[in-house]
Amino acid sequence: MSLNLVTQKSLSLFTAVGGWRTVAEGVASRALFLVAYLLTEHVLTSALIALGGVFVFAVVRLCTDRKFWQPAIGVLVVGVSVLLAGSTGRAVDFYLTAILTQAGGGVVFAVSMLVRWPIIGVVMGAVRGERFGWRRDRAQRRRFQVCTAIFLAKFGIATAVLVPLYLAGQVVPLGIAATLLGGAPAAGVCIYLCWRILRNPVSGPPAQYGVAAHPPS
What is the mean pLDDT of the segment spanning 38-54? Predict the structure, then answer.
């Protein structure tokens, strides 16, 4: 199996959720809101500017990729942030969706590890068309557990940082932290680490899973 093919399969989960465009939209909305708020000091105006920026991204993606659900999700998430911040008049509430996403993601990933159905394995199996064949390979299950644990650590760190900043009403630090920990930088690190773990195939019958065969536990 060539390195290019392994790389493509290892990153298929990332591609499935929209790739770097999805990451860029999340970063753009949070950064736009923070910059607009620093310039205008008006919560609703800043939130609408952020929504407008993401809407432009969505239209461009819809015209180029012909995919509806990925840009629609981005607009929906930012729309909820706009409603929260606009209804309360508190700038920190724009980042409440980011906090809830990180906390909720942490719970889901932790539960999946406890029941030994790691999220990364479930999603990667579905994206690759392998379904649950990876569960027959003990070594591959371990690797998916490690990859899921990497994202779990990211969710946990983000939640531990964002919640105190939100409760303290620190808009600027919260906006920066939400952009870094809930956006491209942290996600990029997790994806790279997972790629490093999953990229090397081992010769043997289950080569499509990237590791040698082991009996299920």
Answer: 92
**pTM of the prediction?**
0.77
Residue-wise pLDDT for 177-194, tens only, equals: 999 998 778 888 998 898
Q: Where are the beta strands (DSSP E) in the chain?
A: none
What is the C-alpha separation between 95 and 30, in angstroms, rounded? 8
SS3 string, 17-36, reads CCHHHHHHHHHHHHHHHHHH
Q: How far is CA 17 from CA 123, 127, 152, 153, 200, in A?
A: 10, 10, 18, 20, 23
The reported pLDDT for the residue numbered 4 is 47
Question: pLDDT at residue 112 above 90?
Answer: yes
Residue 61 and residue 23 in contact, taking contact as beta carbons nearer than 8 Å:
no
> Is the alpha carbon torsion for 50, 56, 60, 65 positive or negative?
positive
Q: Given this model, what pLDDT does residue 111 score?
A: 95
Judged on CB neighbours under 10 Å (0-12, 13-18, 19+), 193 is middle
From residue 3, how far is each of 6, 39, 189 by CA, in Å? Answer: 5, 47, 20
